[in-house]
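Listing S7. Sequence submitted for prediction.
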Amino acid sequence: MTLSFWRYAHLVLALFSSLFLIIASVTGVILAVDAVQEKIPSYKVENFDTIRLNQVLPTLRTVYPEITELTVDHNQYVTLKGIDTEDRDINNYIDPRTGKIIGEPLKKSDFIQWTTALHRSLFLKESGRFVVGFVSFLLIFIAISGFAMVIKRQRGLRKFFSKVVKEYLAQYYHVVLGRLALLPILILALSGTYLTLEKFHFFIDPADAHENVKKELTTINDPTFKNILLADIQEIEFPFSDDPEEYYVIKLKDKEIEVEQFSGVVISEKEFPMTTLLSDLSLDLHTGRTSILWAIILGLASLNILYFIYSGFAMSLQRRATKIKNKYTANDSNFILLVGSENGSTLRFANEILKQLLADNKKVFLCQLNQYSQFPKATQMLIFASTHGLGDPPSNGTKFLDLLSSIKQEQKIGYSVVGFGSKAYPDFCGYATIIDDSLTGQDWSEQIIPMQTVNDKSAEEFISWVKLWSQKTGISLSTTPSLYNHVPKGLQKMMVLSRTIISELDQTFQITLRPTARTRFTSGDLLAIYPAGDTRERLYSIAKTEGNIQLVIKLHPSGLGSSYLYQLEPGSVMKARVLQNVNFHFPDKVNSVALISNGTGIAPFLGMMEQNSKKTDMHLYAGFRIKTQNTYYYEGVCLEMIEKQQLQNYQIAYSREENRCYVMDLIQKDALFFINLLQTGGVIMICGSLAMQQDVEAILDVICQAELGIPLSTYKSKGQILVDCY
């Protein structure tokens, strides 16, 4: 079945039952806490599971002249009702080995009784019990549909617990916690449903009568009576008198027997039906009454249900947040924007293009892929398509290929395809590729530019398409990343630990931030800040030093981000978020790495040197204009890392000092080193300005062509050239 089927089924069931699930979950958490507290303090005696009935009854008969009932509850606390030697009524927890009173059963508080009634029946008696049972039944299907969606998302059962791609907070934890809580929630739902069915006598028990059997069980003092463990007993009713017609009634976990009090002969035996056993098991599983650990797990599962309700609706609103608003009809428009989006993120990009084209007085129509039809006046068609599953279409694009093959346009139309996806999946932009291939085969279509891809909703990668398309068509579109970034929620607070001061010669400063404990990051990741409190985002490459975030920034007179960061004082708090930049993380399984940077591009490399605990062979090539206090600091760090064997060597080029030198000169001088590094599987990492990147790649390409006869692109395709430039 398709992902959309499971998603809609999951959403509809959750919508229908959400109010009742909230009540059941809140009360379930309270009752789980009560189940834990019930076991503290514990009145269970040591080695309880080894105590046998023949060890207990003679002792208790001696201590208590009259006993009416002995019960063993789900906590394995033994309660005795009777009269002691001083004629006092006894209803207490006892040590069954000695008869000593060790505690008094406490009555449930009014609040717990009220909570239990609300949890079971919503104070509506039989009608309420039916509603609660029906919601438990729906929860089974909610869990199953959620399970199916995770399998679809993770691309198979074997990858059920593999890494989850983090699109946004609600989605990420909805999946992660859903995987962990799936089994407890399913057990809660199944046991709750069974208890309701049993309450309404859905299961018909066999005749409730004892079988009259003459079984020589034993007398209490007979050695064979030791076969009955106290742990297997639920209740013993003692004879009221010495009348031979008065029997011991012993209720075990699986049956009930009547025993003559003098001869020890079993008068009758009744085995409990399977429905009774299942009812006890369901009650144990549903309440956690037999285990502190299970009660805690059930409490956490109930809390998770509350979070799933919140995050599920947040995800639904996220998908509906971006609505299509067209000014022109499909028949009147020259530009057609077709969107395939599962959660609405791709639609956001398309909407920004729609707004800009409308502002340029273009007649534009935006619709879903499944709304593809005849477009009589169209001259250009832009397709924005995301991918789900094994190269599958999103839910609003499942019919597109069939429509494309059956509906032919009557005029030539230029087209451009932009694929959205995540490189964490092997079928990256797989569906967009299928669309591009299908359009290539149409006699009415003309490709404007080759298909472009966008990884993890990267505004920077989307801008690459914008530039190419604008250059080809002559239609100017914005290339500002912040325009295509939506304002994120849940920014994390970070404290400023230190900040250096700029000088007349050097406008570069360093700032160190302490993130929250839950912030996961590494050197090479990006810190995103929103200095104006709007969608304008500024990104800075991170160095992880001593567990903190260190940035190296050049202050620009009118720089929005740099000015904001420079005015922060130590002790102040700012809000930001960390963006994983997995394509620029220090490689784990290589023998040698060359780090090439200029200016503030050295920042992530400072952290990578510190994190090089495996002592990978590392070489730094850095370029600056002049020697400053900052460059002396960098050299000090390098010398320290060399002493710790976490850096092999470093070379620094100064372009404005007496002996002018550039990074490219250092690379040219060590040409054989770079050739050997690339041939042996080593990695070159480049961080800094785009101009520097182009110059470095150009000189490396010349070296590769001259020494090896192959272009640098060969090694780039193998992932041996990692770049983060700006």
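Caption to Listing S7: primary sequence and predicted structure tokens for the chain studied. The longest helix spans residues 3-37. The longest strand covers residues 413-421.
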